[in-house]
Amino acid sequence: MDFADTPEVARFRAGLRAWLAGHLDEYRHGTGYHSDAALAATLRWHRALAGAGYVAVSLPAEYGGRGLPDVYEAVINEELARAQAPAAPPIGHIAHAIADFAGDELKTRVLPGLLGCTSSWCQGFSEPGAGSDLASLTTTGRREGDEYVVDGQKIWTSGAMWADWCLLLLRTEADQPRHRGLSMLVVDMTSAGIERREITLANGSREFAEVFFDGVRVPAANLVGQAGIGWRIAMHMLTYERGPADMGWVGRLGHVLAAAVEDVRTGRCAADEPLRRRLVACAVNIDVLRWQVARSLVDRAGVAASVDKLLTTRIEQELFRVVGDLAGTGFVQGDDRFDEYLWSRAQSIYGGTQQIQRQIVAQRVLGLPRG
Ligand SMILES: Cc1cc2nc3c(=O)[nH]c(=O)nc-3n(C[C@H](O)[C@H](O)[C@H](O)COP(=O)(O)OP(=O)(O)OC[C@H]3O[C@@H](n4cnc5c(N)ncnc54)[C@H](O)[C@@H]3O)c2cc1C
Fold it and tell me: Which domains does the chain have, with CATH numbers?
């Protein structure tokens, strides 16, 4: 496999670097989800990036993308991490659900706002009784004429507090087996009957919410594809949650590692032999992860995304344990790295837990029987 840039990719990369050099400074600090000001700065950053043509570039040009191969998405994430810029908006999976399954009218109506970052979106899948076992979800959509009437509850919905739209997975076909009874609706978050309640994360981030739907009326024209194909769309989306974005993640881990190595090299932190060995193992593992993530770009339909998630989780969590041990006393509140350490704990949960990813690898790679 040749990972060198083609001349076109190299030109694209150079253009992005030049743009970042001219635009990054005002966004270098103060973004995030801990306060209203940080959120406003984050949304401004997303719009600036989209306005410059560096968001969802693999989506079709007619809807606001650039119709470029996935590798360009990876380059964007890699360059943002290299420059220590805030991350790109995490919208690729939602954009692909709509672009690859919705009819033309819905695509034309909602994709330009999503891709241009002029509208904010959230993903309403998990429920209090349906996380790993997502197909057991109970939020329902009852068809009445040319509308669906939605009732139920979602939880752990990232970005729901400020989202204009929700891509909602719900049960519409009561008489079908559970996987075939699901559909996906695009829901206007300002609709009557929607209540959002904020959930603050352990690290102080205010990006989570639980969302309640009480008799919410949604036009049937907002159905993504046909009724009953919600599970297929959800599985398609999961393959876009990882891959290109992880290129940025690897880059960010590289910065954390470099800072830790510098602390030891300059004597700011003392590291005994076992701790030094763990630091070296982190360096090797981050390199391995880089190649695994590159592989998952060309093996999207396979299990590469699960392997990638398992590796990222293990490596990131161990890296932050090492950084904590280097600090001697562990982390203190207010230290940015404490924030990142807490976030690393979430890696083993979102987008499919560690245990579920292991089951996928056990069954589909090793061919083991179901446990
Ligand atoms: C940072 C973050 C962002 C998120 N964003 C969103 C979002 O935007 N939208 C959304 O819909 N959801 C979101 N989630 C929710 C996430 O998808 C769920 O938390 C996840 O799927 C796990 O579901 P659960 O929390 O219900 O845990 P459960 O499924 O109840 O699992 C609890 C524990 O049991 C284990 N377990 C469950 N079933 C099995 C099994 N069959 N075999 C072995 N072990 C098992 C799990 O691995 C876990 O350790 C987010 C979560 C996090 C942490």
Answer: 7-89 (1.10.540.10), 121-229 (2.40.110.10), 242-364 (1.20.140.10)
